[in-house]
Amino acid sequence: MHITNAPKDYVCPICVALSGVENNDTLMHQTDIFYKDDLVTGFINSFSLGGVAGNALVIPNEHYEHIYELPAAYGHRVFEVLQQTAIAMKQAYKCDGITTLQCNEPAGWQHAFHYHHHVMQRYTDDDFMRKMLDKAVVSQEEKAHYAEKLKSALGNVLSNSRRVA
């Protein structure tokens, strides 16, 4: 199913960032990345959603606009890394819960036209839903701090999952 909502001449900021370019169009820095393999990348979001900085995104390394065209191999890998990221986030951030969010098309709240899945740490009584419309930009230094914290915890999660498998 090929549907596109990207404007004509759209330059995907996620693809630009994945190529290693750092600029104001992407807001993503290489220090934001906490995980990368052949299929997917995990990085710290440039925006604090719901007033929570340090939330993460898991994306396919190839450009797919939305879930309708995402190949199953990428979807499976996104989910695996998403699950491991959620477990690592619980450890790294000592949060009370996790919310995941994946949006498709503008009516579905998609704002960047590259498939991406949010992983957000939650705390009891954090008033998250009321604050969800707050999209404050998070500094590069703060994102790098969260990426390092999550990278370390994810390393522990991956080590433990290999021992169990």
Topology:
Elements: H1 13-18, E1 33-36, E2 40-44, E3 47-49, E4 56-60, H2 72-93, E5 97-102, E6 117-122, H3 128-131, E7 135-137, H4 140-164
Helix pairs in contact: 2-4
What would your notes on this structure say?
It is a single chain. With 165 residues, this protein is of the alpha+beta class. It has a single domain, classed as 2-Layer Sandwich (HIT family, subunit A), CATH 3.30.428.10. 35% of the residues lie in helices and 19% in strands. It is built from four helices and seven strands, in the order αββββαββαβα. The chain has helices at 13-18, 72-93, 128-131, 140-164, and strands spanning 33-36, 40-44, 47-49, 56-60, 97-102, 117-122, 135-137. The strands form two sheets. The chain has a five-stranded antiparallel beta sheet with strand order 1-2-4-6-5. The protein has a two-stranded antiparallel sheet with strand order 3-7. The longest helix is centred in the last third of the chain and has 25 residues, at 140-164.
